[in-house]
Amino acid sequence: MVSHSHRFHTILTGPRSERSKPKAESLLELERLSSRVKHANIGIWICAILLSLYALYVGRNLFMPILVAVFAYLTLRPVIRGMGRMGIPSGIAAGSIMLVMGLSVGTIGYVLSGPAQEILQQIPGSLPEVKDKLGFIFEHLETVNQATEDISDTADQENLTAEEKPVPVEIKQPAWTTTSPLIAGTGNAVSFISIAAVLLFFLMAGGDSVILSVVSILPSFSSKRRFMEVLVGVQDGLSSYLAWVTCINACLGVCIGTAMWALGMPSPLLWGVAAMLLNFIPMVGAMLGIAAVFFVALVNVDHVSYAFIVAGAYAALTGLEGQFITPMLLGKSMRLSSVLVFLSIVVWGWMWGIVGVFLAVPILIAIVMVVEKLEATSPVQEMINGTVGKNVPAD
After folding, report:
1. Which tens digit of pLDDT belongs to each residue from 37-59?
2. 219 alpha-carbon distance from chain centroid
3. What is the pLDDT of residues 188-225, one digit of tens each?
4. 3-class SS at 34?
5. Which residue ranges run through the membrane (predicted)?
6. For the chain, which residues make up each domain, given as ranges?
């Protein structure tokens, strides 16, 4: 009875292997389609990122002050909200903050303008003296350049035949060009400061009206909640980072000013404030400071070794701060991959010049805060934080 029923079922439904074959083929086709969709999504994202970077590069004179104002607003938003809880209107709070910032910048500029002007006036007349003191370095460089030119000329003469004659070509470069990203990327300083300051004032005076208008456009409650979580995360990350970095840079400025005073450098206050401000520009600021103190020390003292001692002291203090103190104080909350930090500085410095170098780390922090609030981005987050492979259990 069982065998007859099984035979009858087989006749009606067909062999089991024949039924499972179309199902396996459909699953395989579905996997292939899913793989193609993933590859297409990756390509779309790559194209979108490249187009966005190109748009940011072309419109750098417009986007730079806007981004500076937005980052400054997110950093100062807790202060505005705190003043609002005290009963101070947002317009008065914004005006007070702008006034304090303007007075601070003006006071620092007025105090340091005298020593800075004296140092700048010494530069044109001290260049021959600097060249004489560094003559041993220039002699070695000239020897290397002369040897390179001799080798190149010998190779060119061997390659030329009797009928071939070199055609002299002269290329004249203009005395001043704006093709350099450090110059063209920053744009006009007056327009940059004006746009950033006015936009920052309106953002602070408007309070959360701009944020509420953006939230009202979002379609669902979950998207609105996700937007606010991302906004608060970026705000907290930027505020914490800039607060810590400002305190660290102020302490660094005090240490460098004291060291310059102990070493007998002129205007130690100027060097302390300059070191504090330059240290907001990652990597580049420290190199500029080292070069500046080396040049001034070379001009003011007869012994060349003294200039190397001054520059070494500056480099030692900035290196101690950058490699040990800052990572220790910021801790795991701001741990970023050093490779991505360097690449961010290179990319944004190439696109936006000095302003891009200044904004490279805040932009990377904002990206980290956004990634942390999005799902299915743990591999990206591990890559940004530099923890890929560290959490994998050992076999």
Report:
1. 777 778 787 888 888 888 888 88
2. 33
3. 778 888 888 899 898 888 867 777 887 888 888 888 88
4. helix
5. 40-57, 63-80, 92-112, 192-221, 241-263, 269-299, 306-325, 345-371
6. 59-133+188-217, 242-331, 335-389
